[in-house]
Amino acid sequence: MGPAGSLWQHIPSDSEETGEDEDASPSAEPETTLDACSQWRNNVGFWLLGLCNNFAYVVMLSAAHDILSHQKVPAGNGTEPTPPSVPANASRYDCNAISTGAVLLADILPTLLIKFSAPFCIHLLPYGLRVIICVITAWGSFLVVAFSTCTVQSLAGVVLASISSGLGEITFLALTSFFDSAVVSAWSSGTGGAGLLGALSYLGLTEAGLSPQHTLLLMTIVPVIMQASYSFVLAPPPGAPRCGWGKRPQKSLRSPSSTQQPLLENKATLQNKAQSPQLSLQEKGQVVKGLLKYLIPLAVVYFAEYFINQGLFELLYFHKAPFTHAQQYRWYQMLYQAGVFVSRSSATCIRIRHIWLLAVLQCLNMVFLSVAVSKMFLPSIYIVFALVLYEGLLGGAGYVNTFHCISEKSKPEHREFAMGVACIADTLGISLSGAVAIPIHNHFCRLP
């Protein structure tokens, strides 16, 4: 057995297996404690990776109203009410010339392209290289948007955030297949935390008097935290890709020399994790077909909620509320992300296996708020605040429960591919909602 304080236990070679029981030592208990410490590190690492991966994506959506205004905010950064202005088209709605759905499309279409292609070719890139690409593009997105002088340049920065988020999600979800299943909950909670902290930090810093430009520049520290979390916090088990440049483990567990394994896992489990065979195109098609019962409801959940977020939020403007229009939009985004964070962190307490039920409830939410925009019958913004929080709860629950079901139901040799390909569903739903949100926005803004 290894020295005291080692996290890994020596595996006897085949010639030593008959004496396995005699070699057992009472010192196993401290090592079990250390193995629990290693699991804690992995949970923290995946939580931070989820947080950092979605942070830029969330901030770009929270800043959508400002981006379409070329980062120009009223005096006091929108903290003081400004006299209402009459839109040029005399519409009852206070509309930007371009729908915030345009920012959503810039923030999601590159992600969609990555997720559609990546499950079939991403294995050619080492995990370490993928993470570096994510870090560089996220860092660049903050800088490009912060120093942009026009909407087109801002949208280019949003595209960089989308590339980082999309590549990161498919990379880290696939990486969870090599770890204990608890890291799926940690990742989901982290992505929910990104929503809350991203929207709240943008809201809080701009409310405190910082310009959107300075706020975005402060956030360039987040991609650095992502790289540090991947390189230094994770404690990969044997069979997992290391935190360097290797694509995947190549050594068999039954090599002539001794190897290492976590104390609490048996040899058969490690073989499943380590081998991770390459699937044929036909096998991949069968896996995708089996996932449709989870993917279709998840896509519907995300279509409905992002139609609300980017198609209706800007139109749900209350002239008599004690907030400017920009402030109201930021509060909607923050409350939505708060609901997402709570529900994505709830998997250890509440499990929902019927994802279609969440899809139905979210569609009802979308229809109600669409009617509210059309008829303008809601008397108070605080009713919308409650509905937006509820919307976030449904969306977060759909995400975390879908990936838990896929992780549990997939065969070990299919799990890495299944976890990667499943994240296409939410992105597809978001992309469709952005495409629909733009004409709906234009329709309402043309109304007298």
Automatic annotation (TrEMBL):
Membrane topology term: Multi-pass membrane protein
Record keywords, A-Z: Endosome, Glycoprotein, Lipoprotein, Lysosome, Membrane, Methylation, Phosphoprotein, Prenylation, Transmembrane, Transmembrane helix, Transport
Q: Which InterPro entries match?
A: Battenin_disease_Cln3, Battenin_disease_Cln3_subgr, MFS_trans_sf
A Gene Ontology CC term for this entry?
A: endoplasmic reticulum membrane
Q: Which residues cross the membrane?
A: 127-148, 155-179, 185-204, 216-235, 291-308, 355-374, 380-405, 417-440
Q: Name one Pfam family in it.
A: CLN3
Subcellular location per UniProt equals: Late endosome; Lysosome membrane
Protein's GO biological process: actin cytoskeleton organization; action potential; amyloid precursor protein catabolic process; associative learning; autophagosome maturation; autophagosome-lysosome fusion; blood vessel endothelial cell migration; glycerophospholipid biosynthetic process
Give me the stretches of Acidic residues compositional bias: 14-24
- Which residues does the annotated region (Disordered) include? 1-33
Give GO terms: molecular function aspect only: calcium-dependent protein binding; sulfatide binding
Family, according to the entry, reads as follows:
Belongs to the battenin family.
Protein name (record): Battenin
| Gene name, Swiss-Prot/TrEMBL | CLN3
